[in-house]
Design a protein that fits this description.
By secondary structure, the protein is mainly alpha-helical. It folds into 2 domains: 123 residues, no CATH class; 400 residues, no CATH class. 67% of the residues lie in helices and 3% in strands. The protein has 22 helices and 4 strands. The strands form 2 sheets. Strands 1-2 form a two-stranded antiparallel sheet. Strands 3-4 form a two-stranded antiparallel ribbon. β3 and β4 form a beta hairpin. The chain is globular, with a radius of gyration of 24 Å.
């Protein structure tokens, strides 16, 4: 019997080495037994090799069938890889914030890692026969991967970016809230990543956030030897990556153009809002993803019970976010009585879930009917003024996408605060500004793209299905009306409108989706956006490290 070496599999085995090295480098922090390292190396490298093997085949076909699109896609992914490497290099300058050894295999485990990846090759050969079978190709798992490959790859790329940033900005070294954009990062790091799940601010506005979010951290911790803290790091990065995938999926389903969807989802993933709230543990990153799940369920005409569950999740995380689901439900379904039914079912389950939350997590936060605790929110309520409206609009349509130079100020904690928008009880209002040539150019380019989208929307308003477009407009206007009065740094809430803004523009630009010049324009803008927004991340590292000993 003649043995024929599968050269493509051998190439996939070799190309998978950096991925497996980083994965094992992370996992050997939790799995320190040599036998565990050996097992993980065999398993992960064999599976990664098979995926890369499949990917090579898809890329070859893609290059033959769609050469122009494939080069745009290749350039986009190269830009994301370079962005990730640049952020890693930048982080290396701050040893207090980032330790590259965390992603490196310990010296005493290297030989077992090497042995594992060698054994992984014959395992890959054995698994390949099953992967080629008709039975495997008929499975839902393979069908999903094959149909959504580009969106999955994009999500994995952004997961790597968000996870790197998550490991930097969620460290216990940041032992105060409000450092970054008025986030309660310390609080939610404790609530999701430790056993100290109580809301120390004792608020009713997040009535059952723990039973919505914390179980996912518990599940992930099972694979990290019970380490809840790092499980919460993984969770927020996965949540951010899932949002990128959902944007890609929505745009692909509504336009039928996978490349266009890839470019729109990259724009969303590289936005200021998504980089921050796909990485920093807070309630708002989860809210944005839940809202996107609801939008996709509406798109797919999913069963009503799925909408109810998603609506309850939105309410449980923050009570005001039920409004977004109501707006989207009514504008897309256009069925008043179905909306009433949705509202009644959601309303009837709110109190039981609030009771269940505080039964599982005793004394986590007050019950919904304890309205006296809302007095805490008074410090976040301001009088609407023309100046606040103008600054809020700037944050919503400009700062949330293109990062400006942030506001830096020292107040009541031993850290310099890094905010986008500052409202004080003394009536002082400040907003971040674009101070250099690059950021000014990028924000003007973004303004031009938005103007183009608005013009196309008005031009086609009578010719197209406007259900989702109107839903996104109303969701954005609702956020504007709410935060005209509420919020010290309104950028904190940007996850509530970012998806609506990006998806509105994606639908408005729809007639240009197949135009090569527009695809290249979007690609060029995403690259400029990555360059510009990397400066904000660098500022956050440079400034925040000053007070860490």
């Amino acid at each position: 019997m003649t043995f024929v070496l599968n050269k493509r599999l051998l190439l996939a085995w070799f190309l998978s080495l950096p991925i497996s090295y980083v994965l094992i480098g992370f996992l050997d922090y939790f799995y320190q037994s040599l036998y565990e390292i050996l097992f993980l190396a065999i398993l992960l490298h064999a599976l990664t090799s098979l995926f890369v093997y499949y990917l090579i085949g898809r890329i070859k076909n893609y290059l033959k069938l769609k050469p122009t699109e494939s080069w745009i896609t290749t350039f986009l992914f190269l830009a994301l890889i370079i962005f990730l490497l640049y952020l890693t290099k930048t982080a290396n300058r701050f040893s207090l914030l980032f330790d590259p050894a965390f992603y490196q295999i310990q010296s005493n485990s290297l030989i077992w890692f090497a042995l594992g990846i060698i054994i992984a090759f014959p395992c890959s050969v054995w698994l390949l026969s099953f992967a080629h079978s008709k039975e495997f190709h008929k499975t839902r798992f393979f069908t999903f991967i094959d149909k959504n490959l580009s969106g999955i790859l994009l999500s994995l790329a952004f997961f790597a970016i968000y996870f790197l940033l998550s490991n930097i900005f969620n460290q216990p070294l940041f032992n105060f809230d409000d450092i970054f954009f008025d986030t309660d990062a310390k609080l939610y790091r404790a609530r999701f990543g430790t056993e100290n799940y109580e809301d120390v601010y004792w608020r009713t506005v997040h009535p059952f956030i723990l039973i919505v979010v914390r179980p996912w951290a518990n599940i992930i911790s099972l694979f990290l030897k019970g380490n809840l803290l790092y499980a919460s790091f993984v969770l927020i990065a996965l949540t951010g990556a899932l949002a990128v995938f959902l944007v890609w999926y929505f745009v692909k389903e509504t336009t039928g153009n996978s490349l266009y969807a890839l470019l729109i989802a990259s724009l969303f993933g590289a936005s200021t809002s998504q980089l921050v709230f796909g990485s920093i543990i807070e309630s708002y990153g989860f809210l944005g993803t839940v809202a996107l799940i609801f939008i996709v369920l509406l798109l797919k005409n999913a069963p009503p019970w799925t909408l109810v569950i998603t609506g309850l999740a939105a309410f449980g995380i923050t009570i005001s976010n039920i409004a977004q689901t109501v707006i989207a439900h009514f504008m897309v379904k256009r069925d008043f009585w179905q909306l009433v039914k949705y509202g009644l079912i959601v309303g009837s389950l709110i109190i039981p879930l609030n009771l269940l939350n505080n039964f599982i997590y005793p004394d986590a936060h007050p019950y919904l009917w304890d309205v006296s605790t809302l007095q805490y929110e008074e410090k976040n309520v301001f009088s609407p003024t023309p100046q606040r409206a103008y600054y809020l609009a700037r944050v919503m349509v400009l700062n949330s996408v293109v990062a400006p130079y942030p506001i830096l100020y020292k107040e009541d904690i031993p850290f310099i605060k890094i905010w986008m928008f500052l409202a004080t009880t003394k009536g002082v209002l400040r907003v971040a500004e674009y101070k250099d040539v690059l950021s000014s150019f990028v924000v003007y380019a973004w303004a031009g793209l938005m103007l183009l989208g608005g013009t196309l929307f008005l031009k086609n308003i009578k010719k197209q299905d406007n259900r989702f477009l109107f839903a996104f407009i109303l969701i954005t206007l609702f956020s504007f009306a709410l935060h005209l009065r509420y919020g010290r740094d309104v950028f904190l809430y940007s996850s509530n409108w970012m998806y609506a803004l990006i998806l509105f523009l994606a639908l408005a630009w729809k007639e240009l989706a197949n135009k090569l010049w527009f695809q290249i324009t979007l690609l060029a803008f995403v690259v400029m956006l990555l360059i510009n927004n990397s400066k904000l991340i660098e500022i956050m590292m440079t400034v925040s490290v000053l007070h860490i000993k």
